[in-house]
Design a protein that fits this description.
The complex is a heterodimer of chains A (about 400) and B (about 210). Chain A is an all-alpha fold and about 400 residues long. Chain A contains 21 helices and two strands. Chain A folds into three domains: about 70 residues, Arc Repressor Mutant, subunit A, CATH 1.10.10; about 110 residues, putative rabgap domain of human tbc1 domain family member 14 like domains (Helicase, Ruva Protein, domain 3), CATH 1.10.8.270; about 150 residues, Cyclin A, domain 1. Chain A has a two-stranded antiparallel sheet with strand order 1-2. The two termini of chain A are about 60 Å apart. Chain B has one domain: Rossmann fold (3-Layer(aba) Sandwich). The N terminus and C terminus of chain B are likely disordered. By secondary structure, chain B is α/β, with parallel strands linked by helices. The chains are: A mainly alpha (about 400), B alpha/beta (about 210). Chains A and B meet through helix 8, helix 15, helix 18 and helix 19 of A and strand 2 of B. Chain A: It holds the Pfam family RabGAP-TBC.
């Protein structure tokens, strides 16, 4: 297997070697430095001075050559690194396609696969891996998507013609609220990743995003459209075909954490925040105390991060890497990522007051380095006194239920 | 030991920037989705219009320092998501607000009719006597206007709100409305202060009668 890999790595070397040869040439651009004698109409330099100047000139040339060489080496190294990265992505694609994906059930949990997964899934197989990892507990078929979409289109038509009320089979929300929801989808689509310019009116993915969100409100009228969903659907659209994106979207939103947030189940959201704080205090006690002192509660930054699964607050490629591991590890990775971000910026954050922390965390630096973030996330321990995330969360949920039973008025 | 690799990524001069403001106010922005809350704040912050702003999810935060009448004011601006569903999350922040900016879109009668609903939310959740600024945004889209200026004025009068029409796109009345609002906030603060000074007097009187 090893040989196979190295063998593959060597084949694409030929074009690369060409480039490298070009970089090995002697630095020649010192031509800008030419030692000229004095113009003939001026008295000649004394021999001693001429000698000195020549020496100075030679030193300058040596320095310039050194600099050039250094730069050439730097360029060469960068190129090599890029080639190495491309090679490793190329290799990873082959490993995912030929080894892992065909044997998904048996391999997905192996250590080797988990490690490769952590490195980031190559974009070309990302959608497939996400689909498999998210699963399809809801058994949604392409046909069901078509049915939901047809219904959504019917609603849009009746809405735009002001026609008769579509039958109200869905309880819970008023017709006006649902209407507003459909209207809101339209407004939000062009406000989803506006800088990418692909979801706006007339953009290539405008209708796809509209369709998926509309179909979802017909599939789950009890949940409807909630701001933040458009970002999740958009990320899926960028990696999957429309119907598959819908299937992944519906199943993803059906996960307990996402359901709690998108239905705005306050009690459950507070439980998630409380569980997060247990690990926050355990991992970053100093920063935790600073946040407490400044009354900075987790909802202030977590709401945006969890609702959009980081797709709005992190650079998109980095957000996708977070999604990769989220698909592998589940909801706890979302909270681990939050702690990784806090850890990465701990020094800066401890010097800020409430509003500056809030401002900083809701607008993270655009050049956030992915390797550093993932190193920081890796250093976060998701075990508190031998208890794992799920156990802490379950215990808090139990406490909550008992408290609510005991004294209904004692809610926060 | 942790080294934050992104030290250079911190907002420049941010932690110490506000040179001890004389007054600090928390201002919450509310109103229907897509009326222009985030764009207004962007205009206030960068003095340009950014047509490519993403929809707000939950809350956004911004700080703005302004000098008005030779006094330094720091505004902590809380930008909330407009969707109904998020309202229950925004509620807790009403209580902390010194002022609320309630925005509607003059090209959307719907957003204007929701103003009454927002007012009831403010009354329910905010402190009594919270300063409220009613803003009709998007005056640059005069052709699409659905809400006459008169109607905004009437509503403001009825509920004793400060009222402006503005445009985050053109910049019309953006700074003017905020400066007026700051003056109102200052008046409210002074009123509260003088009330607070009056309040602890009774025990002092008691002391007085002991001699």
């Amino acid at each position: 297997e090893y040989e196979e890999k190295t063998g593959r790595a060597q084949r694409p070397l030929s074009p690369k070697q060409n480039v490298r040869k070009n970089l090995d040439f002697e630095p020649l651009s010192t031509t800008a430095l030419i030692l000229e004698d004095r113009p003939a109409n001026l008295p000649a330099k004394p021999a001693e001075e001429a000698q000195k100047h020549r020496q100075q000139y030679e030193e300058m040339v040596v320095q310039a050559k050194k600099r050039e060489l250094k730069e050439a080496q730097k360029r060469k190294k960068q190129l090599e690194e890029r080639c190495k990265l491309e090679d490793s992505i190329g290799n990873a694609v082959l490993t995912w396609n030929n080894e892992i994906l065909p044997n998904w059930e048996t391999m997905c949990c192996s250590r080797k696969v988990r490690e490769l997964w952590w490195q980031g899934i190559p974009p070309s197989v990302r959608g497939k891996v996400w689909s498999l990892a998210i699963g399809n507990e809801l058994n949604i078929t392409h046909e069901l998507y078509d049915i939901c979409l047809a219904r959504a289109k019917e609603k849009w038509r009746s809405l735009s013609t002001g026609g008769a009320e579509v039958e109200c089979e869905d309880a819970g929300f008023s017709a006006a609220d649902r209407e507003a929801s459909l209207e809101l989808i339209k407004l939000d689509i062009s406000r989803t990743f506006p800088s990418l310019c692909i979801f706006q009116q007339g953009g290539p993915y405008h209708d796809t995003l509209h369709s998926i969100l509309g179909a979802y409100t017909c599939y789950r009228p009890d949940v409807g459209y909630v701001q933040g969903m458009s970002f999740i659907a958009a990320v899926l659209i960028l990696n999957l075909d429309t119907a598959d994106a819908f299937i992944a979207f519906s199943n993803l939103l059906n996960k307990p954490c996402q359901m709690a947030f998108f239905r705005v189940d306050h009690g459950l959201m507070l439980t998630y925040f409380a569980a997060f704080e247990v690990f926050f205090e355990e991992n970053l006690p100093k920063l935790f105390a600073h946040f407490k002192k400044n009354n900075l509660t987790p909802d202030i930054y977590l709401i945006d991060w969890i609702f959009t699964l980081y797709s709005k607050s992190l650079p998109l490629d980095l957000a996708c890497r977070v999604w990769d591991v989220f698909c592998r590890d589940g909801e706890e990775f979302l909270f681990r990522t939050a702690l990784g971000i806090l850890k990465l910026f701990e020094d800066i954050l401890t010097k800020m007051d409430f509003i500056h922390i809030a401002q900083f965390l809701t607008k993270l630096p655009e050049d956030l380095p992915s390797e550093e973030l993932f190193t920081s996330i890796a250093a976060i321990q998701m075990q508190s006194r031998n208890k794992k995330w799920a156990q802490i969360l379950a215990a808090l949920q139990k406490d909550n239920r008992e408290m609510e039973k005991g004294s209904p008025s004692l809610k926060r | 030991a942790v080294t934050a690799g992104g030290a250079g990524a911190a907002p420049r001069g941010c932690p110490n920037a506000p040179l001890d403001p004389d007054h600090l106010y928390n201002v919450l922005f509310v109103g229907d989705s897509h009326v222009g809350k985030t764009s207004f704040l962007y205009r206030l912050h960068a003095d340009t219009f950014n047509p490519h702003l993403a929809a707000t999810v939950g809350l956004d935060y911004q700080i703005k320092n302004l000098v008005v009448d030779n006094k330094r004011f720091a505004l902590r601006l809380w930008d909330s998501a407009g969707q109904e569903r998020y309202r229950s999350m925004t509620k807790q922040f009403f209580r902390k607000a010194d002022g609320v900016v309630l925005m509607y879109d003059i090209t959307s009668a719907y957003s204007f009719s929701d103003v009454r609903y927002w007012l009831s939310c403010i009354q329910e959740a905010a402190e009594d006597g919270v300063a409220i600024l009613l803003l009709g945004n998007k005056t640059d889209c005069a052709d699409e206007r659905q809400v006459p200026t008169k109607e905004g004025e009437c509503l403001a009068k009825e509920h004793q709100l400060m009222f402006y029409e503005c445009s985050a796109a053109s910049g019309h009345n953006v700074f003017e409305s905020m400066v007026s609002f700051i003056r109102l906030l200052k008046v409210r603060e002074d009123e509260l202060k003088s009330k607070a000074e009056e309040a602890p007097k009774p025990p002092q009187k008691k002391k007085g009668c002991c001699w």
